[in-house]
Each structure stands twice: as structure tokens, then as C-alpha cells.
Amino acid sequence: MIERMQITLLDGRNNSIGKVECDIDGIISQAEQMGGDIFARCVSLLEERIGYHLTGAAKQAATGYVRRLMALGDSYQPLTLHTDGKVKKFEANEIRGTDMIIDSASVSFEEVVEFPSQKYQERYERLVGLDVLKKQVQKEATVLLAPESLARWSKQHHGRELSVLRAFKDRYPFMIFEGDVGTGKTEFAETFGAAISSSINKRVSLARMSMKSRGNGVVGEMSKLISKAFADAKSIAEKTRAPVILLLDEADSLAQSREESQMHHEDRAGVNALIQGIDHIREVSYPVLVVFCTNRSQAIDPAIKRRAAVIHTFKRPNIEQRLHIFQHYFSELKLDVSELRELAELSGETKEREYGFTYSDLITRVLPQAVFEAFPDSEITFETIKGVVLQLKPTPPFKG
After folding, report:
1. For residue 106, is pLDDT > 50?
2. Of 263, 279, 314, which closes a domain?
């Protein structure tokens, strides 16, 4: 989760305007890319994020905060800033930040991430072997979050808007990512907004729904939580005037089929709230794309699955994808093609097991363990990596 700078906004009479959660690292990175006086740029970008002009003293305080953070690496201390009460205006085509002013009532999300983000772009790029899926999802999400792009394409290549484009108007802005544990669906869902933001040249927010209320046993509040999540996602889109991705991880626990005989009536109400939220999300002024991640797509209510514009199944990497992972991460070792191929084969299905390593197994277990086997006294060799692959066991398929 991104560490965020907490800002309390006050007017000229010291009355509270609200609070802002701000990705200050993102502001600094953007200011560096823009060039010029980096500190002046940071202050200007900060004003864009909060939506207000800062007073002269507040600008000095913000500049000092950024200087200390860059020079000393200080922790993200809360900051209080005064505004002159004037709302910051933006050009229609200007790329803006998506930090939002929040009131004392907590929103429904574990986190709200803003794109573009270098950190999330790098995470997205580390998902190697998924190039085909990345290309397909980028097309689909672009059409759902920037529907005007279809009209531009049609006019550019056909001279007018084709009749077939009308088929897209009734589609729900809703995707389901299904697949076994460790296949990369959640990491993909959390990071693909970085690529979409660049593709459509707009800011995009990712709002990830918190599952804590279910873990605390507050089942009776589930339908209220779901309705509030959709309302908050719409609010973020309207406040930022930019698209939002609403991510619901472990969606099967929320959207389980109402046909289950033992289903609690409050859970049924929660599923109904989900259906209503998905139905109403098509009517917002600024696009909201709903993404479900699930290990158990068969458990999701059929009425919800029918609404999905697309359903993508994430599978364990095949031999070519495993080969690509080893090539990518051990490129400096100059391993022979035959050695890389052997590693890819050993990490797949064998006579002893019918399943291979997941993406998560390879990235978070095999690769680091190969480093630790050599560190600090020797170099990584083919035999080092092979030994790790033979030693570790892949995560068994999820059965639920």
C-alpha cells in the first residue's frame, strides 16, 4: 500500500475545510519529469491535488516539507495548510491528480491509488509472460474508460461512426478476473491502471474495496458497505473528473450465488446491492470500471456473471511463459537455451504432480531463494537455480 501524506486544510479563519490523502512521492516524480523549479512545480501540483490555492505561508511550508523529504528522507508527517478559499481551476484537457478530499467518515476502500504511477508501472512490467493478455485488457479497458476513443478510431479509419459501435453502448463497465491462487490476477488488477492511464492520456484512480467488515463478522452491514463503495467510487470520479477502477478482490465472498440453500438473507441482500451497483454504474458522468477478482468464479451469482463485459481466466504459466520468466530475470547470467528450457520444464507439470509453479511461486519464492543460495559467498549458476526448483514445491491448486 502506498504511504500517503496526510494534509488538513484550513481556511483564513482556521476553520477546517477537509482532509486530503496525497501521494507526495508521485508529485515529486511528476515535478522532476516536468523540469524547471522542482519545488515550485511540487507546490503547483499539490494545489491541483487539493483543488485550492494555498496562501503564501502555506506554499513556504509545503516547499520546506518537500525539501526535507527529498534531502533527509523524513517520514510522512501530517501537515496543516491554509488556503485562500479560491478553488483551483483546470483546463479540460489537463492531466490532474486524483487525491481526494475526505470527511471524517471513512470511505469504503483499503486504498485509493492514482495513475500514472511509476511505482505501479514497474510492478505491471514485472508481470512478464502476459503480453497477449495485457494487450487485450488494455483495448477493453480503454473502450470502457474512454468510450470516445472508439468514435475517434471509427472516424479515422472509416470516415464515420460505424453502426457496429452501437453494440458497445449497452455493455456494462465490468470485468471479472478469475483464476487459481498465485496466477497473477490480483497483481494485474492492481497495476493495469498504470498502462491504461498512459494509453488514454488521463488520470485514473484505483479504489480497492475493503473486506474488513466481513472479516469482523458484521454481515448485516454488507449491503450498506457495497452500496457505499459504489457511491464513493462515483464521488471520486466526479471530484477528480477522471475515470475510476473499482476493484473488489475475493469477490466470490461478496457475490456468491443466491441459489445456495444455506445463504444468509443478509448475504442475498449484499448480492442484490452488487447487482444494483453494477447496473447504476453505467449512468455516471465519468466512467467507473468495476473489476472482480476471484478464485471461485463458479460460486459467483449467474446474474452478476452475465453482466460482465469480459471474463479473463488467469492460468498457471505454460512452458513458454516460464521460459520467458527465467530468461527475463536471469538475463545477465548468460544461461544456455537448453538450460533455460530445462528450468522451464522442471517448474511445470511432472510425473509426480499434475500442476506446475504459479507466477507467484516463481517470482516470490524460486527467484529470491536462488539468490539466497548464492549470497554472500558465491555466484548464481544454473545448478543453483535448478536445485531451488527441485527443492521447492508449487502451490497446490485451490479447491473451494
Report:
1. no
2. 314
Please tell me whether residues 279 and 158 are part of one structural domain.
Answer: yes
Spatial separation of the C-alpha atoms in residues 255 and 292, rounded to whole Å: 9
Question: When comparing pLDDT for 252 and 316, which is higher?
Answer: 316
Final residue of a domain: which of 252, 284, 314?
314
| Look-up of cell digits 494555498 | 54
Burial class (CB in 10 A: 0-12, 13-18, 19+), 26: buried
- Say if residue 183 is in the same domain as residue 296: yes
- Other beta carbons within 10 angstroms of residue 90's beta carbon come to 12
Cα gap 144→164, rounded to integer Å: 16
CB-CB contact of 48 with 90 (8 Å) = yes
Least confident of 1-15, 44-58, 101-115, 245-259: 101-115
Q: Are residues 125 and 193 in the same domain?
A: yes
**Number of domains the chain contains:** 3
Answer yes or no: do 230 and 187 share one domain.
yes
> Pairing relation of β-strands 16-22 and 101-102?
antiparallel
Q: What is the mean pLDDT of the chain?
A: 84
Sheet holding 101-102, edge to edge: 52-54, 79-87, 5-10, 16-22, 101-102
Under a CB-based contact definition with an 8 Å cutoff, are residues 64 and 56 in contact?
no
Q: Read off the CATH number of the domain in which 331 is found.
A: 1.10.8
Q: Rounded to the nearest 5 degrees, what angle is found at the Cα of 112, between the Cα atoms of 29 and 199?
A: 60
Q: Which residue has the higher pLDDT, 11 or 352?
A: 352
- pLDDT at position 161 over 90: yes
* Domain interval for residue 346: 319-391
Contact between 206 and 194 (Cβ < 8 Å): no
Buried b (16+ CB within 10 A) or exposed e, 177-209: bbbbebbbbbbbbbbbbbbbbebbebbbbbbbb
- Provide the pLDDT for residue 291: 97
Which residues are registered as beta bridge partners of 113? Answer: 206
Alpha-carbon span 279 to 283, nearest angstrom: 8
> Strand 16-22 to strand 5-10: parallel, antiparallel, or no bridges (unpaired)?
antiparallel
